[in-house]
Amino acid sequence: MTEVLLAVGTEKGLFLGRSRDRLDWEFSGPHFRMNAIYSVSIDRREGRTRLLVGADSSHWGPSVWRSDDLGANWHEPSRPAIRFPESTGASLTRVWQLQPAGPEAPGVVYAGTEPAALFRSTDGGETFALVESLWNHPQRPEWGAGYGGQGLHTILTDPRDPQRLLVAVSSGGVYRSKDGGDSWAPSNTGLRAEFFPAERQYPEFGQCVHKIAPDPVHPDRLYLQNHGGVYRSDDWGGSWRSIADGLPAEFGFAVAAHPRRGDTAYLFPLGGSDDRIPPGHRCRVFRTTDAGTSWEQLADGLPGEDHYGIVLRDALRTDDADPAGIYFGNRTGDVYGSRDEGGTWSLLVSHLPDVLCLRAAVVG
Questions:
Q1: Could you tell me if 333 and 316 are in contact, meaning their C-beta atoms sit under 8 angstroms apart?
Q2: Against a cut of 0.85, is the pTM above it?
Q3: Which of 77, 175, 188 is nearest to 117 (CA)?
Q4: Which residues pair with 287 in a beta bridge?
Q5: Confidence of residue 78 (pLDDT cuts 50, 70, 90)
Q6: Helix ranges, 50-162 (H)
């Protein structure tokens, strides 16, 4: 039988769930007790499964840990894995993202941080180096900070070309590189910055992008949840157009794409930037199967009324089983899962600390 691992990062540690039927789960934890876990990755390249965790201790500060035995043992490098060069005058606040590159670069792992920067590892996450071309970009000093801080939270590699990279910053917008990170250009055409004056709401950069997910079938297609707005790109971020029609609200943090089926993506809308609770106080996931032309509500098994839990940018994810599992965790500490691609839902675990991020994958 297929075994799925569900990694749940919370404000006070990491919880690991394992299940063979995706109905009954056994959870262990908290690992990294009292650490805020803002990033988790499950790297299954090179014939092994490696967990990478960005843990933030209020006493010791942020660090990157790894496990090659599904969390039974953890290793922390003897020196900080991610550290800003002294010449930058910056210090690491948080690791927002840990993203393995594709199979063509088996040892490469990218990290996105606060302050907003991109780091690259070539040894599977043991050590990272600052991508100085992005840090030294002339627009970077003008990037703002989202409500949760200035974070580089999305890192995508193009499966057709390892030299193409795309990142998103809150609040800097989308940037792309076509030369492996040697140079970068903003790529925000069509994205609105609703918090700017009316005459400046479509700037070259400065948008507060919340998350981007790639379509698994159409490699040029991306789905984006903005700070006010839901968008699609059909040219790998070159331009964006709204696909928000049919949703109860345009605001939200999370977006996830189906792992195999094209044109299929999932959102968890919130009322707005000044109303960050689910519309109608109802817990609902919305799915498109036609690349955003239309949306359907998925709520069978979810709380119907008086629900106020919000889902953060990395707390809505899929696994790679067949049929695909869809999972989300909220800030009330509940984690829900669907083993039929969103058709029906069940509560997997409740009363955890605030859920910050999720990752899920078949591990056996």
A1: no
A2: yes
A3: 175
A4: 266, 296
A5: confident
A6: 132-135
Looking up tokens 């942020």 gives: 62
- Separation between Cα atoms, residue 255 and residue 264, nearest integer Å: 11
Tokens of 349: 């675990």
User: Nearest 5°: CA angle at 80, between 88 and 35?
Assistant: 110
DSSP letter for 324, please.
Answer: P
Pair 265, 285: CB distance under 8 Å: no
Please state, in angstroms and rounded to a whole number, the distance separating the CA atoms of residues 52 and 242.
34
Non-local CB neighbours of 329 within 8 Å, separated by 6+ positions: 8, 10, 311, 315, 335, 336, 352, 355, 358
Give 28-63 pLDDT, tens digit per residue.
999 999 999 999 999 999 889 999 999 999 999 999
| Per-residue pLDDT tens digits for 86-110 | 999 999 999 999 999 998 898 999 9
Task: List the structure tokens of 273.
Answer: 């930037």
CA triplet 16, 156, 238: central angle to 5 degrees?
A: 145
Of the candidates 17, 49, 21, 89, the one whose C-alpha atom is nearest the C-alpha of residue 335 is 17
Query: What does the DSSP 8-state code read for residue 88?
Result: G
Name the amino acid, one letter, at 139: Q
Residue listed under structure tokens 């969390």: 71
Distance CA 330, CA 350 (A): 10
